[in-house]
Amino acid sequence: MDVKLPKVGDAADSGTVATLLVKVGDVLTADQTILELEQEKAVAPIRTPVAGTVAAIHVKEGDKISVGARLITVDSGDAPAAAPAAAAPRASTTAARPATRPALASVEDEEVEDLPAPDEGADAGPEPAASPYVRKVARELGIRLSRVTGSGSGGRVLITDLARYVARLEKGVARAGRHADEPRGLVFAPVSQDFSVFGPVTSQPLTALRKVIASRMVENAVSLPHVTQFDEADLSRIEALRAQHRAAYEAAGVRLTPTPFILKALVSALQKHPIFNASLNEVAETLVLKHHYHLGIAVDTEAGLLVPVLRDADRKSLKQIAEELAAIAAKARDRKLGPDDMKGGTFTVSNQGAIGGGHFTPIINKPEVAILGLGRTTLKPVVTAEGRIEARPMLPLTVSYDHRVIDGGTAARFTVDLVKALQEFPEDAVRL
Known about the structure:
Layout: E1 2-4, E2 14-20, E3 27-28, E4 33-39, E5 42-47, E6 52-57, E7 64-66, E8 70-75, H1 84-96, H2 109-113, H3 132-141, H4 159-176, H5 208-223, E9 226-234, H6 236-251, H7 258-272, E10 278-281, E11 286-289, E12 295-300, E13 305-306, E14 309-310, H8 318-333, E15 347-351, E16 370-374, E17 378-383, E18 389-402, H9 408-423
Parallel strand pairs: 12-15, 15-16
Antiparallel strand pairs: 1-8, 2-4, 2-7, 3-6, 4-5, 6-8, 9-18, 10-11, 12-13, 12-14, 16-18, 17-18
């Protein structure tokens, strides 16, 4: 039988073969992992539902595949296995087709030329009807569906309508060097330069993960008006509480770092300023205030930046947060995060304290409206309320926020309350 790619996660319907773990002739057991599939920033193990011998392999590392694509043929011994040579041509066609744009390459030039010009005022109207898949593709391509003319029943936008629109934009780029139909944004053609004329160089291909990170960072940096608030927090009380309760936590098998304290203090500040735990619905022009606190934790890995989500931080104790932080960080570094592990965040924290450095300006993780950046805590001379100069552990922190939603005064008040929550951390929240 053929083992095909199942649906992995709620919204994942495609990916790239990151690692192929079997070869022809291998004997498999049911539920054995046969390959690892890279989906955006996650790597998911794909398992065989049946036992048997690998008779043919229809994909290779680097192939882009979608749900339903044939992966391998397994001979269970009940019937002759499919011949590898006969299966390969059909599999290569499936594997080579980009999953996010399955129909975009099918638009002919004459169809593109006949398209009417998009209505420049279409953005003001409601979005037309479209399937969730069409909306997903349009969102990933940065296209407003209100600008696409639908050919389906009642003006419904089909994937072929989206394909024609994209093809027309591509022809506009070829003619004019930019998207003439998208005057609100800037589109720059990629430039290829031979740097070897200046000296020795080494070229490395970008990984699929790095391409995703690059695309997201450009989109977030360009589409959001970033403003950054800088401040410092005195962690003397938190360090004293850590010293007082460290032994009890270690006896419980938990390493007590400053980060769980910071996340607990952050939640209290978010509860006081709910606009920082919100998202802007650009289509409906509404502000969505969230009553759950799922904190994205940026993790530095060898493969690149990953942001797993710590869910319901407001409902977890300091010990639970510390345990979960260690677990998700380990999963991120081992590339064992699933697609759903990095979805649904309401606010992100980027902590560079373990590496070093001071203030920096983090980029907001859209569709969130703010992000907290943490530097390395260092001893600094501080003038106390009594007029004495003392060495205090000072934490540099920065809050980048979306100025469409949050004003400077609101950001300043949030930062002041966050600093206060850190400096007046309650002991009851630490005690086991």
